[in-house]
Design brief:
Elements lengths: L3 H13 L8 H17 L6 H8 L4 H22 L3 H15 L2 H4 L11
Length: 116
């Protein structure tokens, strides 16, 4: 997902500021949730047309900053606890393929325990 050289840049940025002391897994998970909420707030109370207009305006940079914050905290968390993002996403795709077979769910939004 995130390129190794960019991850290293993030890790170095944090190390240079001595912020590892604040980045326990718990605190990183909390920060990730808070940043994801800020990302969600960018869309709150907006119609599809308003969102499209914002995406094509100078406000887009605010959304990009929130996405970057989410990615940074997730990257720190995975790095610190030894999770390979690419590996776990690949495993999850396989699990979801079994849970949501194409022939049963194509074009549907039902949860796996709601379709027949």
């Amino acid at each position: 997902m995130i390129k190794p050289e960019l991850l290293q840049k993030l890790i170095e940025f944090r190390r240079e500021r001595d912020w590892e002391q604040f980045h326990s897994p718990k605190d990183l998970a909390i920060s990730l949730s808070l940043e994801a909420s800020e990302l969600l707030e960018w869309f709150q109370w907006k119609s599809d047309q308003e969102i499209a207009a914002k995406l094509n305006s100078d406000k887009r940079v605010d959304l990009e900053d929130e996405v970057a914050d989410v990615v940074a905290y997730l990257s720190y968390l995975c790095h610190d606890i030894g999770i390979d993002i690419n590996e776990v996403v690949n495993k999850k795709i396989h699990k979801n393929a079994l849970k949501y077979p194409v022939e049963k769910v194509k074009g549907r939004s039902d949860k796996y325990n709601e379709y027949s």
